[in-house]
Amino acid sequence: MSSAFSVQGPAATGSVSSDVRRPTKRSGVAVRRLTLYALLVCLVAMTGCVKQLLLVETTPPGAKIFYNGHYLGESPLTTEFLWYEPYRLRVEHAEYSPLQENGVLKAPPWLWFPLDGVMAVLPLPFRDRHRITFDFQSPQPEHIAAVMEAAESPPTHTGLLEDLRRIHQQRPARHDQ
Length: 177
Prior knowledge:
Structural class: alpha+beta
Number of helices: 4
Order of helices and strands: HEEEEEEHEHH
Shape: elongated
Helix content: 25-40%
CATH class of the domain at 47-141: Mainly Beta
CATH architecture of the domain at 47-141: Sandwich
């Protein structure tokens, strides 16, 4: 029996074998390249970052800073934030009246879609800084004097007692039958 194909090796003797091909040098290089590219993409994705910073300064320094009702610390203060959003910033100093500002932290154009994705994976650190300053007016002597006088004098309740007597006298008499 003549055939164009001849069987040689273990299959010719009746044993069963699978046709497993050993990887060639060329396929090993492709796997290494693919692994290297995947590792490079992961490293680039991990190195890129955008730091969003909020800097609050007051004149004079040492004021308590509240961001959306949460105490952050004393001025001057630099803190990171995550979201571009409306904010309510309240600043309190012991010698001055509290100050408040409502505003919106807006993203710069290079952090708008679709550029924000590109900026996040670039292997360079980017910083977006927002600076807010508060200047307290000089303390008003009459305001400070009135507060100090009220704090030092004991509370009086004579007006309250007089009001209760007047209300009681104006009330119509009740007749229980």
